[in-house]
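TICKET: design request
STATUS: open
ATTACHED STRUCTURE:
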């Protein structure tokens, strides 16, 4: 998606972004925004709206549909363009590089800046909107929820968690956030699921992961989706990432979610390294983590 946006960014004019912002504003109330409402939302003249709609539609940034009226909505490329524009205006970075990871609910890219940074676009709600609405509690109290809102709330939630946890917990350092996108420190490491640990490393690495879960809980957060797919093993230890589903430690289901996180992580080690993890009691380990203690294994 970003690959489609980056080449057209230089062609876009300030009024194009006014139009895109106007469509974004209108989508708070309906999936498709009526053409006649766009001058009000974008603060452009009707003539300029017509011109900008053609430009943005040609570049794949808005989508047109005729229902009882002629309506427009942002594509995810259009939403990406708005976020990219905001970051560039704030001098957060000056260019997007190679993809670092593309998944069902997020895309991550390297970005050019004064230090190695990563840009994460949340995609929650774009391809599985109904399922996400059921699972994400930050959509539960709204009558009309667009995928932009769902993705933005996920980004806001993750960024808030990172700001609260860093640097006391080993998470990527947060740098900036806009709409559905987060800029953070680029972590040099290997995903735990793709790491082959030596016998001497298995229990110490598991201890480190559980210690970070304990530290996060003590700092007021439960990851709520921890697994071998969102832990990096680095030269310095481990880094836990992907925090959009995190809940606060006073959440009514916090203890249950914490126990599930511990079970997920320990279960992975037991499946991959059964001879070294035999006898580990996930219930005892979860109680230890909930007490804010780093378990000692072996």
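STATUS: resolved
RESOLUTION: sequence designed for all positions
ATTACHED SEQUENCE:
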């Amino acid at each position: 998606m970003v690959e489609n946006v980056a080449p057209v960014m230089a062609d876009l004019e300030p009024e194009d972004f006014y139009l895109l912002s106007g469509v974004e504003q209108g989508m708070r109330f309906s999936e498709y925004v009526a053409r006649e409402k766009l001058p009000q939302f974008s603060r452009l003249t009707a003539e300029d709206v017509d011109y900008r709609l053609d430009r943005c539609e040609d570049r794949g940034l808005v989508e047109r549909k005729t229902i009882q009226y002629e309506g427009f909505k942002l594509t995810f490329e259009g939403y990406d363009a708005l976020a990219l524009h905001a970051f560039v205006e704030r001098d957060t970075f000056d260019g997007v590089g190679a993809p670092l990871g593309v998944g069902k609910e997020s895309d991550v890219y390297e970005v050019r800046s004064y230090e190695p940074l990563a840009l994460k676009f949340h995609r929650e709600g774009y391809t599985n909107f109904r399922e996400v609405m059921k699972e994400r509690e930050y959509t539960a109290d709204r009558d009309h929820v667009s995928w932009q809102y769902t993705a933005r709330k996920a980004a806001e939630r993750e960024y808030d968690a990172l700001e609260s946890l860093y640097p006391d917990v080993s998470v990527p350092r947060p740098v900036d956030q806009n709409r559905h996108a987060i800029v953070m420190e680029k972590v040099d490491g290997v995903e735990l699921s793709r790491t082959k640990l030596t016998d001497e490393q298995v229990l110490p690495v598991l201890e480190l992961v559980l210690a970070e879960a304990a530290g996060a809980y003590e700092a007021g957060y439960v990851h709520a989706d921890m697994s071998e797919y969102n832990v990096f093993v680095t030269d310095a230890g481990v880094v836990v990432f992907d925090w959009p589903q995190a809940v606060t430690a006073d959440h009514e289901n916090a203890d249950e979610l914490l126990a599930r996180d511990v079970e997920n992580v320990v279960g992975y080690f037991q499946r991959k390294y059964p001879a070294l993890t035999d006898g580990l009691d996930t219930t005892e380990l979860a109680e230890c983590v909930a007490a804010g203690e780093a378990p000692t294994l072996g």
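CLOSING REMARK: Residues 178 and 207 are 35 Å apart (CA to CA). The longest strand covers residues 95-102.
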